[in-house]
Amino acid sequence: MTPIAPVTLAGRLVTLEPLEKSHHDELVAAVRDGEVWKLWFTAVPSPQEMGAEIERRLELQEAGSMLPFVTRRNADSVVLGMTTFMDIDAGLPRVEIGSTWNRASVRGTGTNVDAKLLLLTHAFEVLGCPAVEFRTHWMNMASRAAIERLGAKLDGVLRAHRRMADGSLRDTCVYSIIASEWPQVRSGLEFRLAGHLDSAR
């Protein structure tokens, strides 16, 4: 079994780098693009909270429950945001892909498609996961649509599952992709990525 350990994943549009404290200023610049922390149904760190969020993710990495990455665009080396393998069950192994956010200006450019292709390829083909999970707020329609476009299936909804920063209770949609579905999901992601690459030429 391949250990679930920090690794750099290089794709066509982006590279996923292991999160480090030195990424702080680049991540602050990224989160200010679109002020995505102001969306009430997300848990994106504000510029003032970025240092604490980096510390939190690195502490979870040390505990073995998270593998955090920074997403960097290959074309100009600009940091776009963060993503993770989280809620890691190393014994199965099983991971959730989550705690993801990106600059608002890169939506629809294919960078997130490339990042998901990198993460899922590593999870299924290197780590040997039988399933990969995704979770999001019931009200986060954009996130739900993006997860469903991957080919993930809705396993269920956890009602009143988490308390948000504003005190409201979150209903959590739980999705997954299982290993037998991965070849079809991979083909779909590669097709979508090729479209973005063609349009960029």
Automatic annotation (TrEMBL):
Residues of the N-acetyltransferase domain: 14-153
The organism's place on the tree of life at top rank: Bacteria
Entry protein name: RimJ/RimL family protein N-acetyltransferase
UniProt source species: Paeniglutamicibacter psychrophenolicus
